Fold:
Amino acid sequence: MTERPILVLGATGSTGRRVAALLRAAGHPVRAASRGGEVRFDWTRPDTWRPALDGVSKMYLMAPHEQPVDPAFVACAVERGVQRIVLLSSAAIEAMGDERLTAAERTVRESGTAWTILRPSWFAQNFDEGFLREAVMAGELALPLGDLRQAFVDADDIAAVAVAALTTTGHAGRRYELTGPAALSFAEATAIVAGASGRPVRFLGTDEAYLDAQEAMGRPRAEAEAEVEAFAMLRKLGDERPGDVVRRVTGRAPKGFEAYAAEAAARGAWRG
Structure:
């Protein structure tokens, strides 16, 4: 019997494209879906949902920043025979008041099908593929986190855990906290990026620096102030402790931040 395809949402994004690539390398059929990918999928266009879901057995579920996971879509997936869902969530969502991801986790847990929730720490790739790259290129990164230490996790490791959860047993009903092997302050991580890229980059960790940077970008001050409050709640949690989930699930050690930065620099991530 031919294996039914695995639906990968966000298949052109940082984790989605890696999940799709690993699944294909292991011989699994993949339906790669996104707004501009192989299969068109748009959260705001329900007419794109059923074609993406037809014949699918499992699903890697994620939604872009600020886009809620629609419970109607998850219900549609289960109705059409999806037997396993792996959701990309995030660490510390309760502390930061992230109602979008809290609701997404609840929707998946109550879906009536097997589920696994991934809660990664800060992506290392935020520095070269994500929202921190512009600041790196400008030479100044401001986040109101002071010397808080976080266990940055590589997107390759997130994808490897997702693929294991999609294709092997023992992961149903589990919530995995994903971290890298060491906790670093943002000043330390920024210095590593600066050294690897050859670009001078300084880190500013105060509320005032963050508000000034956001105002310079044209963002409403009220929005930035709300984010400062959320970051303050994260600081109250204290330094993050690295865990062993990546090693336990994948059988290999997670990638360190220095290795990530060296690889990103070698492929020209910060040229220009």
